[in-house]
């Protein structure tokens, strides 16, 4: 199941869990692939992709 919001951490309750937000640096093919794998393999959507360029695609965006 893909979570659409930041999950609550329930402290000491029985259903407590820890989550680890992820920062992906670079929105090239590698960064996009990482985000896809996080979602598809782990159902994890607590990440942000940062890039110094104004668009998505890395080398492909720069050489568009
Ligand atoms: C002219 C050219 C043609 C190519 N043609 C092909 C092709 O036809 N087929 C093919 O399979 N491959 C091709 N490649 C190779 C392919 O583009 C690369 O292998 C692929 O883009 C690499 O992806 P990447 O995400 O690892 O890196 P990149 O695409 O380089 O993405 C890295 C991103 O990280 C960002 N970044 C880096 N450091 C920071 C930082 N400190 N803070 C914020 N952002 C940061 C950069 O701005 C960039 O957007 C080509 C490459 C070039 C240069």
From TrEMBL:
Per the record, the domain of life is: Eukaryota
**Keywords assigned:** Membrane, Transmembrane, Transmembrane helix
From the record, give the transmembrane residue ranges. 17-38
- The reply to whether Transmembrane figures as a keyword in the UniProt entry is yes
Family named by the database record: Belongs to the FAD-binding monooxygenase family.
Cite the InterPro entries for this sequence. Answer: FAD-bind_Monooxygenase_sf, FAD/NAD-bd_sf
Extract the Gene3D superfamilies matched here. Answer: FAD/NAD(P)-binding domain
The protein in question is named Uncharacterized protein
- Organism placement in taxonomy: Eukaryota, Fungi, Dikarya, Ascomycota, Pezizomycotina
> What Pfam families does this protein map onto?
NAD_binding_8
Specify whether Membrane is a keyword of the entry.
yes
